[in-house]
Amino acid sequence: MGPYVAPKEIEVEGGHEVMHQPSRKNGPNLPDGAMQTFSGPLVGASPILSVDGLGANITGPAGTFVVNSVPPDTNLAVGTTQVVETVNSGFAVSTRPRVQ
After folding, report:
1. Is 15 inside a domain boundary?
2. Residue 10 maps to a domain
3. Residue 80: which pLDDT band, with cuts at 50, 70 and 90?
């Protein structure tokens, strides 16, 4: 992914398109209230469990999962008793393994 480019307003001046920074609603000399000014703590994570997720040829009660898009759009949520995963239009719900 390339560097962030701020949105610009395009106007036509003298037959040419000219890009301008968008005007700020709260004034040009006020700080951006949404800008993050600090970082949170660095937290290390180490896996204690690994489980198979949705992938080519995984079979369940509704049939076999087929990869239909590249790259996949994956999401995962872990609850106290279940793991829910979505990949594009497919989804799987599985019992969460116990970790001791």
Report:
1. no
2. no
3. confident
